[in-house]
Design a protein that fits this description.
The protein has 198 residues and is an all-alpha fold. It is 75% helix and 0% strand. The chain is elongated, with a radius of gyration of 23 Å. The termini are far apart.
Length: 198
């Protein structure tokens, strides 16, 4: 293993810096193209579903005479629709958050200091860049940021928003900072859905 690492370091030292810069520019250009294509793909059917799910519920109950039993049945129906809609929206937003976190150009540092110390090494810098560009996941059972995100993503696939949030909240502050607003919003929505379900 050490021999392979030493071999890679020697290869990296021999690489022409201009070639690296031109390659990085090409990678950025390709990344932008991929991003545009992904946006177009995601807009089509998913956007229509979200619009249908989030469209306001029209309430005509004031226009018609309704007895007390029908009124309570209508209220219960609205609660079910609202919580379903909220859960679907939260799941969509959570998927976006996972993608955003995986795009971070940082392989495994847990503090800003660690990130800046390792950036001095070209190999680490390249590894960090590729980790974000390729959205690397870490399937080990440790508490590194990418391992936590990977486990959170698996919980999200199982539609378990509470465990997803618990794992995201365990991220180091420098990873969690861009998604703090989502965490607060999601916790409030989950509490609201739980209270409506009672």
């Amino acid at each position: 293993m050490n021999l392979e690492i030493e071999s890679l370091r020697n290869q990296i030292k021999e690489i022409d810096i201009d070639l690296i810069k031109s390659s990085l520019k090409e990678i950025e250009r390709l990344k932008e193209e991929i991003s545009l294509i992904n946006n177009e793909i995601q807009k089509n059917p998913e956007e229509e579903k979200i619009e249908k799910l989030t469209s306001p519920i029209v309430d005509h109950s004031s226009d018609v005479q309704i007895n007390e039993q029908n009124l309570s049945a209508i209220k219960n129906t609205k609660k079910i629709e609202t919580s379903f809609t909220s859960e679907e929206i939260l799941l969509k937003k959570a998927k976006v958050i996972v993608e955003k976190l995986l795009e971070r150009k940082d392989f495994a540092s847990s503090t800003k200091e660690e990130f800046y110390e390792t950036e001095l090494d070209t190999f680490q810098n390249l590894k960090n860049y590729l980790a974000g560009f390729l959205k690397l996941r870490q399937f080990s059972d440790n508490s590194s940021p990418r391992a936590l995100i990977t486990r959170a993503e698996l919980e999200l696939e199982n539609r378990n928003l509470k465990k997803f949030l618990d794992l995201i909240k365990q991220l180091p502050d420098n990873w969690k900072k861009p998604v703090n607003n989502f965490i607060i919003e999601a916790e409030n929505s989950l509490n609201l859905m739980n209270n409506e379900g009672k």
